[in-house]
Amino acid sequence: MDYRVWIGIFFIFVFAVCLLACSGLMDRPRNVVLCTTLTVLALGLRVWCFPHVTGDYTGFLAPWIEFFRANGGVHGLKYSIGNYNVPYLYFLALFSYSDLYGLYLIKLLSVFFDVVLAWSSMQLAGVFTRDTGKRIFTFFAVLFLPTVVLNGAYWGQCDAIYVAFAVMALWLALSNRPVLSMVCFAVSFSFKLQAVFILPVIAVLWYRKKFSLWHAVIFPVTYLVIVLPAVLLGRPLIDTLTLYLNQTGSIGSGLNYNSPSFFAFFLNGANTAFWSKAGILAAFVFLFAVLIWLYKKRGAVNDEVILTAALLFAVAIPWLLPHMHDRYFFAADVLSLVFAVAFPKLAFVPVLCQFASLLGYHAYLKGRYLFPMSYGAAALAVVIVVLIAFIIYHFPAQRRRKAR
Questions:
Q1: Could you say which residues of the chain have pLDDT below 70?
Q2: For strand 256-257 and strand 324-325, is the pairing parallel, antiparallel, or unpaired?
Q3: For tag attachment on the chain, is the N or C end more exposed, with fewer CB atoms within 10 Å?
Q4: Largest CA distance in the chain
Q5: What is the pLDDT of residue 393?
Q6: 144's torsion region: left (phi>0), alpha (psi -120 to 50) or beta?
Q7: What are the tens digits of pLDDT across the range 113-138?
Q8: Exposed (0-12), middle (13-18) or buried (19+): which is 253, by Cβ within 10 Å?
Q9: Residue 255 backbone class (left: φ over 0; alpha: ψ -120 to 50; beta: rest)
Q10: pLDDT in the model for residue 133
């Protein structure tokens, strides 16, 4: 493997250790040894995954890098290429200037954001516990989470980026830093449309008065600033701003793509047009029903309810929608782990989420099903019921605490 990959891994190692140290988690010798050792193991596991090549890289990512290389690097940003939004294309354009194997550059970027994701998750967990051991556990549990390892280091995907910023936004909101939170929500959305599975939590945060109405302006302004470099390089503004609208035609016509969604229960031959509309309607009805219900209960909404709502949205919305793909529950995987740290008695929740997601990963990466995808869909159905029951139970518990 090229020595420059090892240099990149070393810098990511230093970055991870600095984050842990600055978070006050390496104040004891045993913590230094523990964190250093686990960081080396987490990064070593990822390096071992680096040589694996998938069809997504050979069919999409590698040709996109070559396109930028043939069209002047960043100057190629003026063209519409691929189905990723421009923030990720910025990285691919920069990668085109290097003669290092593009696969390694892409995976180094993903691994860097694996660390950011782990840190963001640890910070979010810190809202609910100040225990050093639990915070260290959260950091490394995310780093070693199977879908996190497979997504970036093995598959070469970048879901860690948008989820890292979404989790960071949630932490910042709960820490009463609304401006930075809204910026992070916008950055998350700018990288991937799948951020919409989490964004409804902004309304719940508003119920809790973590946001005011003027903070909503920050979102579009941030988004515009992020895409502006591509526009200044010649990319049409309207095409750039409407990229996600144009993407809806490229998600495929199938009801399910190796996803543990509701449509995994369907056998071949289902009325695709009808069930597609029904799924979209069900997702919107569910979303608005939960938001209206939480609004009526807004006096009892607290940090615990907000975290649970964020996880509920990340699980239930893609579970109900048609045309979902194998990686669309990545945010749910991570948030479920933070949820389990906050509520240890519900530690089975991330286990069910991992089981469901890994079925989809296995189907794509191995080209066959380990178990029917309906097993994963059933597991997530249990998670949805548990989360709804948890919120229902939580409200009277809050009232009892206030009455004492």
A1: 247-253, 267-269, 396-404
A2: parallel
A3: C
A4: 70
A5: 83
A6: alpha
A7: 999 999 999 999 999 999 999 999 99
A8: exposed
A9: alpha
A10: 94
Residue 325, classed as helix, strand or coil, is strand
Short-list 40, 51, 20, CA closest to 144: 40
Q: Which of 109, 94, 103 is nearest to 229 (CA)?
A: 94
Question: Are the C-beta atoms of residues 292 and 285 closer than 8 Å to each other?
Answer: no
3-state secondary structure of 144: helix
Q: In the chain, count of helices (H) and strands (E)?
A: 19, 2
**How far, in Å, CA of 349 to CA of 188, rounded?**
24
Helix (H) / strand (E) containing 324: strand 324-325
How big is the chain, counted in residues? 404
Structure tokens at 288: 């608005």
H or E stretch including 28?
A: none
Q: Alpha helices of 175-271 — where are they, by DSSP H?
A: 178-191, 201-207, 218-232, 237-241, 243-247
CA distance 203 to 373: 32
Give DSSP secondary structure letters for 249-305. GGS-SSSEES--SGGGGPPTT--HHHHHHHHHHHHHHHHHHHHHHHHHTGGG--HHH
Q: How far apart are CA 25 and CA 137, in angstroms?
A: 11
Q: What is the pLDDT of residue 1?
A: 81
Phi first, then psi: give them for residue 28, nearest 5 degrees.
Answer: -125, 145
Mutual orientation of helices 29-49 and 132-144 as an angle, nearest 10°? Answer: 10
Crossing angle for the helix pair 330-342 and 132-144, nearest 10 degrees? 160
Distances (CA, A) of 373 to 98, 189, 381: 40, 28, 13
Q: How far apart are CA 120 and CA 281, in angstroms?
A: 33
- Sequence-distant (≥ 6) Cβ neighbours of residue 350 within 8 angstroms: 333, 336, 337, 339, 340
138 touches 341 (CB < 8 A): yes
Q: What is the pLDDT of residues 386-397, one digit of tens each?
A: 999 999 887 765
The pLDDT value given to residue 78:
92
Reduce the DSSP state of residue 203 to 3 states and report it: helix
